[in-house]
Write a structure and sequence with these properties.
Elements: E1 2-3, H1 6-14, H2 18-30, E2 34-36, H3 38-50, H4 56-68, E3 72-74, H5 77-88, H6 93-101, H7 104-107, E4 111-112, H8 117-126, E5 130-131
Parallel strand pairs: 1-2, 2-3, 4-5
Length: 134
C-alpha cells in the first residue's frame, strides 16, 4: 500500500498542473490500495480553502468523494466522516477533526477544552462532547 501526500490529491482535485494531474490520476487508478492520513486531509482542506479559494461545498464534495473511492483507505475514516458532517453544518474542518479524534472509548476523553468561543457554541449546539471549564 502506498501513502499519499497532500500534493497528489491537490493535483487530482484542482487539475492546476495538467501533466501532474494526469500522472496522479493514472497512479491512483493503478494502485491496489492507497492510504490517506487524516493529517493529509487536514492539510488538503486548508490548501483548497486558503491557496485555491475553493468554497466549502466543493471541498466537502471532494472530501466525500475520497471516502467513496474503493481503493482508498483513510486513517480513522469514521472520525473523518464525522468531521466532514460537522464541517457541512458550519464547524471548521480542523476543529471537527480534533473533536472527532478525541475518541471517548479509546482515549478515555470525557470533555473538550478550548478558548475558541465560536467552537464552544458549535459544540454545545451539536451536543457532541461536554465542554471543560477552562
Amino acid at each position: 500500500m502506498t501513502a499519499l501526500d497532500t500534493n497528489v490529491l491537490v493535483r487530482v482535485i484542482t487539475n492546476d498542473d495538467r501533466a501532474q494531474a494526469a500522472r496522479a490520476a493514472r497512479f491512483l487508478r493503478e494502485q491496489d490500495r492507497v492510504f490517506i492520513a487524516k493529517t493529509v486531509l487536514l492539510e488538503l482542506e486548508w490548501v483548497l480553502r486558503s491557496a485555491y479559494r475553493i468554497n466549502s461545498n466543493a471541498i466537502i464534495a471532494a472530501l466525500r468523494n475520497l471516502l467513496d473511492v474503493s481503493n482508498v483507505e483513510i486513517e480513522d475514516e469514521v472520525e473523518v466522516a464525522l468531521a466532514i458532517e460537522w464541517f457541512e453544518k458550519g464547524m471548521d474542518f480542523a476543529d471537527g477533526l480534533h473533536v472527532a479524534s478525541a475518541d471517548r472509548v479509546r482515549n478515555g476523553v470525557t470533555n473538550f477544552a478550548t478558548f475558541d468561543n465560536s467552537l464552544r457554541r458549535k459544540l454545545q449546539r451539536f451536543g457532541v462532547i461536554e465542554l471543560a471549564d477552562i
